[in-house]
Amino acid sequence: MSERLALFLLAVVAALAVLVAPWAAINRETGARSAVVLLPERVVDFTGRTDPVDLPAQGTVFVLTLVGLAGVGAGAAVRGRGRYLVWIAAGVVLVSGTLYGMNRFYAGVANARQQAFVNEVQRGLDNPRPTVDVAALEQVLAAAGERSLDENLAASADAGLVVRRLPYSNAGFGMSAFLALVVGLFAILFGLRWFPAASRAIDRLLRGAAVPAISILLALLAAAVVILALQPTPVGASVEIDGLFTYLVGRLDTLWYAYYSMFHDSLGTVNGFAESLKFSTPLIFTGLAVAFGFQAGLFNIGAPGQMVMGAIFAMLAGLYVPGPRLVVMPLAILAAALGGGLWGALPGWLKARFGANEVINTILLNFVAASVLLFILSSGNVFAAAAVRIIVVIGVFVALMIVLSLIRPVRALVARAPRVALAVGAVVLLGACIVAGLPQPGDTPVRLQMPFKVPGNEPKSQVLNAAAQLPQLPAMLGIQRAGVNLVSLDYGLLLAPVAALLALLLLPRWRAARPWSRRLPLALGVGALAYGVAWLLGWTSLPTAIPPTKLNLSFLLALLAAALVHVVLFRTRWGYELRAVGLSPRAAEYGGANIARNTVMAMAISGALAGLTATHYVLGGALEDYSLRQSIPTNDGFDGIAVALLGANQPVFIVASAFLFGVLKYGGSVLNITFPNLTREVVSMILALVVLFIAARGFLPQRLFDPRTWMGAESGPAKDDANQKRTTAAEEPT
After folding, report:
1. In sequence order, which residues have a C-beta less than 8 Å from that of residue 553 and are 6 or more positions away?
2. Contact present, 159 and 133 (Cβ < 8 Å)
3. Buried b (16+ CB within 10 A) or exposed e, 292-311
């Protein structure tokens, strides 16, 4: 499939959507009942009680949309480079026309809500309650047209009239408007092939994004079938769906609003965005952990156990390490990494020493770690005296083995016959346990109570010392009051570092800016320019409502960990050696790589990354408080496998895929509230399907995932130049 055919099909689908799919919704009530608008000036009311709204310029938007879609389709029929200019023009018409229409739509809805507010105030004046200040309310009514709706609502509440519900709530764009924007943006993107440099950049973009984008799209299409099967069209009590057209509009709006509610609340509100980042933070750590093992040719499926051990070590450090915050907090973070690293190094050592499969060992160690967590936080640890003696024997045996391993002659003797040494050690340990387990006179049950556990039956540890607690987002912004707080934020400080980082990543493609002596000043200049643009736009002091959230400093630690992993894997000699071991162990060993050492180190670092999730759940208080709980969500360890696969084991893409998973996880809770028949399992199904399609790419047609075939990556100026060179070479005499 060429890019021309792809854009033509997209234009046809968008044109059909303009005819039968909602363009916008003027009202969405509880229970997902909607009143939708179709171009031009067609309204389908599934609520049964929504009054019409004056929405101007719909005819103009309808004509512009059809003209733009026709231009995209006509451009697909044009041969040569002229089609790129046609696509750019058609894309600009589509995007500008849709944005213009949505701007007029939101203005019309805002006017309708303002008029509804005026009517409510007038009714309040006609029949005033004893608590209403009539004079103040009359002033509110007189100045209603000069203030925003939020200001009017606050003023009326101060006057004693609380307007709790206004019509035309949750208005937003619909499926056909979204598809028109998508087609317009794709048309502009492919139209940029007019420029040779842009054509090569588009090819690189398509090659990198093809597999995850197609996998996500296929997962959403498959989930759409389930959504339509489970959720009927929500309608009011007085509404009956009669006719195929109304039925089709209702089904399309139900499907669209299901996905809209998942993504809009996660990305369109401060609270949803913060919650999405909160869900994505542990997934960044576990995704990096799995990806680091993958790069070394290892499958670390033990992230859940490493999370638990990191949480235990972090809890112990947070409770018993004294000192100021500048000392205790870094030590607690290192303790989390140490716990996970030791639990990851164990299967790495077993593989390097005895060839034991790391998948089996890490799976089994997950159960061991879960049992340890259950043991230390249990409220009824009553043991027989023989069991206590066996535990003591095992502890003494492990300590003795550690001491013997430090003696060089003993270590050399074990190295000569490791399997025999392991068998002898196992027999000795088994015999000692049997002897210690024999009943003895005077044995009585022993009750163990861990000193760090809270009294009672609640399975949690004591609250960590304040010096070990990572600050949460409100505290980082200087907010001390509970609830929603309105603060003035400088978004330029967020935009400038992002722009500088992007400049550092993109400037090496410009030959003159490859040396660091030139890249760094240019990147700083780009960051300063971005801050200047933010200042001109007034973004350096924007009032923002900050809700209470558990998002904490560990999110920044996760981003720092991703940057460090990228540097280690792709900017250091050892990282190159590690990736060589993962690609071809024999060739790497022939080149001088130490396979055993790299295996142990890779598993230790992988486990340390998984253990750092404790900075979020324990040190960051992402659960109910700053303590270790048995309810720590270890499933994030398995979700990290999907995050690593979707991110192609690249740290930058892992951060993006973890954020997508966080958006879907939070959106699942919103989806369950909006649609009673759709639970969070729908989101779990989407995530599972994404992994399935990524893993099944070898069984699906290669053309489906290769952008050089289905998006025409071989077309454009680059191909035209190559064809010209081949023609010239063929005409030259030999």
Report:
1. 470, 471, 472, 476, 615, 620
2. yes
3. bbbbbbbebbbbbbbbbbbb
Q: How far apart are the first and last CA of the chain?
A: 37
Look at residue 514 in the predicted model and tell me its pLDDT.
59
Give residue 31's identity as a one-letter amino acid code: G
Would you state the pLDDT for residue 459?
A: 86
Quick one: angle between helices 554-571 and 651-674, nearest 10? 150
3-state secondary structure of 38: strand
Inter-residue contact 149 to 171 (CB < 8 Å): no
Single out the residue of 153, 159, 167 nearest to residue 28, CA to CA: 167
Angstrom CA distances, 217 to 221, 259, 694, 713, stand at 6, 12, 11, 20
**Cβ-contact 144, 118 below 8 angstroms:** yes
Residue 460 three-state SS: strand
Residue 615 CA to residue 322 CA, distance in Å, equals 18
- Tell me the residue ranges of DSSP E strands in 557-630: none
Q: Residue 586 class from Cβ within 10 Å (0-12 exposed, 13-18 middle, 19+ buried)?
A: exposed
H helices, E strands: number in the chain? 29, 8
For tokens 């077993």, the residue is 350
CB 324 within 8 A of CB 264: no
Dihedrals phi, psi of 152, to nearest 5 degrees:
-65, -40
Phi, psi at residue 80, to the nearest 5°? Answer: 90, -175
Please tell me the predicted confidence (pLDDT) of residue 299: 93
Between the alpha carbon of residue 200 and those of residues 152, 206, 375, the distances in Å are: 53, 10, 58
Cis check: omega of the bond before 508, within 30 degrees of 0? no
Taking 70 as the pLDDT cut, the residues of the chain under it are 1, 379-381, 477-484, 486, 505-517, 697-734
Sequential DSSP letters for 440-453? -TT---EEE--TTB
Q: What are phi and psi of 33, to 5 degrees?
A: -75, 135
Q: Are 497 and 528 in contact (CB under 8 A)?
A: no
| Rounded CA separation 338/343 (Å) | 9
Instruction: Report d(CA 711, CA 366) in Å as an integer.
Output: 44
